[in-house]
Amino acid sequence: MKLSAALPAAAVVAACALTACSDDGGSTVDYAPTPTVTDTMAMPSSDGAVAAGANEIVISGFAYTVPATVAPGAQVTIRNTDTAEHTVTADTGGTFDIEIEGGETATLTVPPTPGTYPFHCTYHSNMHGNLTVG
Ligand SMILES: [Cu+2]
């Protein structure tokens, strides 16, 4: 008599446990992981924050550090601290095209007309900067 009373109770417990299990599994499946795209690297920030002279463009780690502004017609030193050779080449108009060997410096004569001059490296298409003359 005691056994027959205990069996249905155990069966109910087992059934509840199974139901709870399948409910949990079903409700947690339909979330989708949100893709996190960090695209900030694509924006070249050339604010001259790195310790560089006022009239100095520093190339380090395949990236340019450019002064905030340079005077029209000024002489700007380009310092290449990489071992790779780089260029500072105006994107348009052939305004300037300076080649700097690894570990060397070169001099860029700033255009006389105020404006922003985007430039790049002819060897490394991911290297971009902006020279602001004003
Ligand atoms: Cu380069």
From TrEMBL:
Transferase is among the record's keywords: no
Pfam families xref list: Cupredoxin_1
Keyword annotations from UniProtKB, A to Z: Signal
Keyword Chaperone: no
Top-level taxon in the UniProt lineage: Bacteria
Residues of the signal peptide: 1-22
Residue ranges occupied by any EfeO-type cupredoxin-like domain in the UniProt entry: 72-133
Protein name (Swiss-Prot/TrEMBL): Cupredoxin-like domain-containing protein
